[in-house]
Design goal:
about 25% strand
Length: about 220
């Protein structure tokens, strides 16, 4: 469970939030909507711990993990496929352990966890996500730097979805205007992915659109 406990936040002397409280329970879908500049992105940053509330507390239940769609447009020479696979940080850490030649108890524990996360099919999973988001054929092997900003946002989305196997995962999607121009086919693919996730999801949305209706998400106005 994610709990926002009576938080207040000031920016440049003006109060952005006052005594804000709500909870996100396991399996719950929430749509956070509001006009530009009302504080959605700030609340997003508060939940991620990038900034701290002036009053109150944000509590993430022990054993839970936050994943989110990066808003920064990454410029790297890594392939699109490699970039997306790296979104599952736990798999990456386990792979480092499994490369060790000393097969001690830690190595066998890592192997068991890796198998439970379906690590051996990570490449196939990443390729499926990329294909569903509009990348075709050899494009998944092209460097991230070859793609425009809009396509890199799709890579950031696929990267977040790669963490779906983690238990206790909560995903926060901050949807930007560029997403509004994606095709209906890609939108439907994203909806299927979100509905299949046995996790909590918070959609930080700029406009009130059909995506929240599709997810049957309770609305939290800020």
């Amino acid at each position: 469970m994610l709990e926002i406990q009576n938080i207040s936040f000031f920016r440049a002397g003006a109060q952005l939030f006052s005594s804000l409280s709500f909870k996100v329970f396991d399996g719950q879908r929430i749509g956070l909507v509001g006009r530009n500049g009302c504080g959605k992105s700030t609340l997003f940053r508060l939940i991620l711990g990038e900034i701290n509330p002036d009053i109150g507390e944000i509590v993430l239940q022990s054993g839970k993990t936050l994943a989110y769609v990066e808003q920064e447009i990454i410029n790297t020479k890594k392939s699109a496929l490699e970039f997306v696979i790296e979104g599952n940080k736990e798999l990456n850490e386990l792979e480092v352990i499994l490369q060790c030649k000393n097969h001690d108890s830690a190595w066998f524990d890592a192997q068991q966890r890796y198998e439970s996360l379906d690590g051996y099919s990570a490449k196939a999973r990443a390729a499926q996500l990329l294909n569903g988001l509009g990348f075709v054929a050899d494009e998944i092997f092209r460097p991230v730097s070859d793609f425009s900003g809009g396509w890199r946002m799709r890579l950031n989305l696929a990267r977040a979805l790669m963490q779906r196997a983690l238990s206790g995962l909560k995903i926060i999607f901050q949807i930007t205007p560029v997403v509004l121009f994606w095709s209906l086919m890609i939108g439907n693919f994203l909806m299927r992915q979100l509905m299949e996730l046995p996790i909590s999801i918070m959609l930080v949305w700029i406009f009130m659109l059909g995506i929240m209706i599709s997810l049957k998400a309770p609305e939290l106005n800020v």
